[in-house]
Amino acid sequence: MKNFIEELQWRGMLHDSMPGTEEHLLEEMRSAYVGFDPTADSLHIGNLVPIMLLAHYQRCGHRPIALVGGATGMIGDPSGKSSERNLLDETTLRHNQECVKAQLGHFLDFSSDEQNAAILVNNYDWMKNISFLEFIRDVGKHITVNYMMSKDSVKNRISSESSEGMSFTEFTYQMVQGYDFLHLFQNMETTLQMGGSDQWGNITTGTELIRRIGNGKGYAITCPLITKSDGSKFGKSEGGNVWLDAKRTSAYKFYQYWLNTSDEDAEKYIKIFTFLDQETINSLIEEHKVAPHERVLQKRLGEEVTNLVHGNEEYEKAIAASNILFGNSTSDDLKSLDEQTFLDVFDGVPQATVTAADIAEGLDMIGALAAKTNFLKSNSDARRALNENAVSVNKEKVDENFVITAKDLIADKYVLLQRGKKSYFLLSVE
RNA sequence: GGGGAGAUACUCAAGCGGCCAACGAGGGCGGACUGUAACUCCGCUGACUACGUCUUCGCAGGUUCGAAUCCUGCUCUCCCCA
Q1: How large is the average pLDDT for residues A3-11?
Q2: pLDDT value, residue A199
Q3: Distance of C1' in B2 from CA in A165, Å
Q4: Which 235-264 residues of chain A approach strand B with CB closer than 7 Å?
Q5: A:409-428 Cβ neighbours of strand B under 7 Å
Q6: Are residues A292 and A258 in the same domain?
Q7: Do A282 and A407 fall into the same domain?
Q8: How many domains in chain A?
Q9: How confident is the model at residue A41 (pLDDT cuts 50, 70, 90)?
């Protein structure tokens, strides 16, 4: 049995644990669970930390259980929230659960014959049949309101004067989540719950229930909330959340997110989000310090995580796309791409169409940037960009007098426009 | 209820009869540099049929050759006294 706690410690993934947890885990194979909120039909990289907790857990020889919060998702966790949550209906939740399940399969081994194969459960399955009366009689009786009120998640909501208060529903959340732990303890020998450090309060309600009702002992491990060194929120890019689903965040953008992490964060993240061992990571860090501009850390981090989430084929494509967009690729390189690759690379770039006649006549730059396409918000904006020497056609800088004609078409129907280095626009001809 | 201050572009904030599409700062965007970074430097940042024209300074009227600037009314915000 590999020492899970030690593993978490050097990776910087241990925030807090209940006394005795380490010994408990070293004795024999144990089952632990982490809950996931099915609030969307995809997980995002913020969920990656608890996922990695489970994945490392399984690699240490223990049995990970992923709990999809169908029931708890209907209530809404008040932790860290300043206002009442919106509730989702059952159909949406069911759909989301299916999607989340598929994504977790990339990280956890659900199908092996080993004793520690991962298991997926949905708390809706056991919560749905419990009546309100049963619950308050059999479970509620054992926990005092005083105890519940002492939790930070509750205190913060009822004490802050600006808030609208807290509904009974949300107040009950910790009981429902705590009951999950009790249920898993009694039915699946689950003795450990893990989660982000904001979940500590909810988890201890669970261990309390296990002590009082289950006559047993439950353990808890929390991991730190992931931060970014510049203070912005982890897992957000300009486009919003960075999702694990390629339909929401393309593999290319996903890779780019990791590649763009700061040096300081990359050191932290590579420990958390990859399975690389300590020795490998240390030598990578050393290598990075010698030549920071090579960004070996960021590249390796991006490689590992993208491979894990999207697979090797998608990773290779992301690299290819990155080279075209940021490497020294020329107009000729662009024109040599076949249509499918070209579209893959520029997936998600704003597009507009112009007619073949426009091209035949020769399309002026104002028309291409604004008048006919609305890529930029006004003709003035387009003129400004041209004056700033910011506009490129097929990666070559052009001025206001440039006219797009048939010779500029890629794959006979596309023209790649750029304003500055980072904003691309794709013009296609019909 | 009484008294006072104010509302200006994405934000903060000057301007107080013509020289105002409106100082300055922040932000945003672009250029040089660079590691697809940080720092630094430079430029741009109302629109258009663009060396000119048009619409903007809480809203609606008015005075004037001419108003963001003066007058009247309205709406909203803040402060002080009761």
Answers
A1: 95
A2: 92
A3: 37
A4: 256, 259-260, 262-263
A5: 419-423
A6: yes
A7: no
A8: 3
A9: confident
Q: Please indicate, yes or no, whether residues A301 and A388 belong to a single structural domain of this protein.
A: no
Tell me, what's the pLDDT at A164?
63
Pick out the nucleotide with least CA–C1' distance to A390: B30
Q: A158 lies in a domain? A: yes
Give the neighbor-by-neighbor strand order of the sheet with A31-36: A16-17, A219-223, A190-196, A31-36, A63-68, A119-122
Pairing of strands A219-223, A190-196: parallel
pLDDT at A58: 94
The whole domain housing A352 covers 341-429
Cα A153 to Cα A80, A209, A421: the distances in Å are: 7, 18, 44
Looking at the fold, whether A346 and A403 belong to one and the same domain comes out as: yes
pLDDT value at residue A374: 87
pLDDT, one tens digit per residue, over A277-290 is 999 999 999 999 99
Predicted local confidence at residue A80, as pLDDT: 63
CATH code, A246:
1.10.240.10
Reported ipTM: 0.83
**A173 marked ligand binding residue:** yes
A351 labelled binding-site residue: no
Mean pLDDT, chain A, whole residue set: 88
If pLDDT is split at 50, 70 and 90, which confidence band does A82 have? low
